[in-house]
Predict the 3D structure of the following.
Amino acid sequence: MPAVCLCRSDQWGDWRWQLRSRLRTKEQLGAIIDLTPEEEHALSHPCFVVGITPYFASLMDRADPNCPIRRQVIPLAAEALGQGVTMADPLNEDGLSPVPRLIHRYPDRVVILATETCHTYCRHCTRRRRVGMAERGLTRAELEGVTAYIANHPEIRDVLISGGDPLTLANCQLERILARIRAIPHVEIVRIGTRAPVTNPYRITPDLTAMLRKYHPLWINVQFNHPKEITEESARACTALVDAGIPLGNQTVLLRGINDSTTVQKQLVHELLKLRIRPYYLYQCDLAEGIDHFRTPVARGIEIIENLRGHTSGLAVPTFVIDAPGGGGKIPVSPQYVVSQTPEKVVLRTYEGKIVEYPEPRL
Ligand SMILES: *Cc1c(COP(=O)(O)O)cnc(C)c1O
């Protein structure tokens, strides 16, 4: 296969061209960055699914193997290591799936897996057991099954469309799903989880935003992991979504060597707020097989939150969560501000470490 050259094709700004032209091989990637022997070796591994849009690839540093963009998308040999504590399905999503392509873990909300395709495959993917393997979308029969399940469960008021990346679907395919979900009276809000603004910002077209705004109240969560991902193009995509009345949240995965410092996280959340994106979750890396080398000590996440809370806008501070191994849901993990608690008073510590007392009401 000829190496795809990153000279700006006249189709560069066409999201379908970006998707079609994903860089997938050692030869294609070796033409644009100086691969290390370890990266070359990993790119020859038959089981690693690699795919990077030319746009996202253009953000990689040619010479620096520690480039935070590069480390999110170019595999390392460590992905093949079988680690004792890791699991193919760490959140037991398959066990919580009453019908194919639907995950029902919480009482009032469900996730739909709309496709297995992504614009760009993240090395840290928690659903790597299935994402990218078949690149198959939801079939008509599966959509019927998912819709019937939600319609038969009046307690479901919030539906998350995830994948893969639902924005790899054509507008008409995505609209078919949105229209069916919206037609169910007890569904109050719909959310879409996508990395398109980050990895293929050209996907956010006027046609897309015009279609999406018919399905309000609609929320979108994106995944920016590093300030280097904030570019003119990704900023334009996010602005178009917010201007269509869609509130944006961001879910960052804490990744060793990529974004596991206060400096990087603070810069990231400040850039997000400038784009009207609310930092939502900071995720402790899951126990998925092949991503052990990205894990950080839990104390690192707590320390980052400690260094943000009070020191900067409350709006900038995400909730640090660990998704419970085995499928119990997301657990917030916070710095401890309560020093002691009696029926008379609570002793607290401020963000600067000052001790204060709050007297309890007399009951
Ligand atoms: C993360 C997640 C949700 C949504 O959780 P929120 O805390 O409401 O954002 C719902 N279902 C599953 C299976 C999830 O993993």
